[in-house]
Amino acid sequence: MKMLGWLLAACCVFAVGTASDEHVRKTMVRDLEGIRNVYDVDYAFADWKGELFGWDLDVAFEQAVSDVWGMEELSVKKFHRIVRDFVVSMKDYHVNVHFNCTESASLPFAVWSAQGRYFVCWIDEECPKEIGLGDELIRFDGRAVKEVIAELKAMGDYGVEATDEALAAMFLTRRSARSAYAVPQGPVSVVLKPKKAREKTVNLEWEYRPEKVSLDPGQCSGVKSMRACQSVAFGGKKESALRRFVKEYSMTLPLYDHFVKGERNAQENTFALGHREGPLPPLGKVTWKVDESYPFYAYIFEGPRGKKVGYVRIPHYDLWEEDIEFFADIILRFEQQTDMLVIDQLNNPGGFGLLACSLSSMLSTEPTVLPHMQWKLNPSIIHHAVEVIEELDQIVDDLDAKWWLGESFFGHAVSMNLVNQLKSYFQFLVDEWQAGKTVTDSFYFMGIDQLPPHPWAHYSKPVFVLINEQDFSCGDLFPAILQDNDHARLLGKRTAGAGGSVWGMEIPNHFGVDSMSVTVTKVVRLDGSFIETLGVKPHIPIEVTANDMQSEFVDYIKAVKAHLK
């Protein structure tokens, strides 16, 4: 009889309105409550998002709960979309969620948006020969491509039109259940128009990878043994508390994982986030080029009026101390051999804030004043801060400092002065918490009020920085520092506006929420404004045109060179 009872109960798991159905939905709501609690405790920009968008955590949570109870048929993947919509409601590129799913699908080409039109920017070696670089995409799966892009944008509406458009274009041919997207399979047709030819229809097949993680709602809701809440960090356990802190609260776009890390052939797509060379062809006749072993792509070209112009690309700020030395070598050469400098950080997903600050100090002969930060505090952050203070208290002189931290710490020369600045920063966090605050006042970035010029590699001539709507996090921070200090002219489009440090974590849950991220700090510019959502505006707006996508960026390069004075 017991066995019969169990079988009858199992048959009722999916029946809407049964006790088992109610249990599953209640369990989903409990998981949502845990996710809500993370953002209630840790999200730094809750008030700011309320001012900008009228966003309210409780209202967003109640909508998610309503969506759970409104599901006509129970599905874990539908629940994933509810969680994603709840998280995206904060309109923060740092606030994200990933799921324990393997299902994904891709097509052998990538798309870039320009002036409201869509172009093939990269093709896989397995792509049909009928598809060519620069072809304009007109229709996708029987529909106007604009309609499909609009649907994808609605799933990732972060409140920044140009950036949302760019991300939707990337998702067009890359879908993953890990990011809670519906994953297509089977045939798909596209209508393309080459620059000087008629429209053509190409039939393709999605490269589909099936789901290998069983996601039965009843089974998931019955899980009793769940992992403990933990941070998602970059480094190992043997690192110093200070280094772990800097890595754990980095400034990197969480979606970078979706588009690049683990993506087949990602390094071949020059339009991809963080690509070493980036999408631009040489800006002029190249007279010198860096060795390919360097982490930075750099060259010298003949600019307007016979000027020698240095070019260096910063693809991301997820770099190491030895990479800084390569950058310094390039800057030293450019100081000696060029008349001006172009820095390309298009499509930059971010990295380590301290490292971005270090690079900025090489681009002027004047001190660089750093922005301030505000923290959303919790006991975990304070405990980590206390560990760092105790670690730094053991350092008594420059020799000690270098033994503990090395000659360079994320690009900053190690000395007792740096140690004292860092210690003051962590002591400030502890003092603010002891004073009863959960949001700190503004304080110097990592305790460093300003940076002197690099001791031997600094640029004394005009600097121009290329920015666009796909510069995130440190990709926002770096141009903001240069603009606030009047150390460079910014050319291009405004950056995405991901303005703080991001903390990744895993939390106990039943339904395959793998990891989450939350913005725990606010970067405050020298004029008191936030980078978050507002981004960094260029001094000189330059847009990639539709003609650029079919003519080797001829309009863009002409516009850039017109301002190299």
In short:
By secondary structure, this protein is an alpha+beta fold.
Written overview of the protein:
The protein is α+β, with helices and mostly antiparallel strands. Among the domains are: 78 residues, Histone Acetyltransferase, Chain A, CATH 1.20.920; 106 residues, PDZ domain (Pdz3 Domain), CATH 2.30.42; 201 residues, 2-enoyl-CoA Hydratase, Chain A, domain 1, CATH 3.90.226. The chain is built from 18 helices and 29 strands. The strands form eight sheets. A seven-stranded mixed β-sheet has the order 13-14-15-16-24-25-29, covered by helices on one side. Strands 1, 11, 12, 17, 26 and 27 form a six-stranded antiparallel β-sheet that branches. Helix 13 packs antiparallel against helix 15. The chain is globular and about 65 Å long. The protein starts with a helix and ends with a helix. The N terminus is likely disordered.
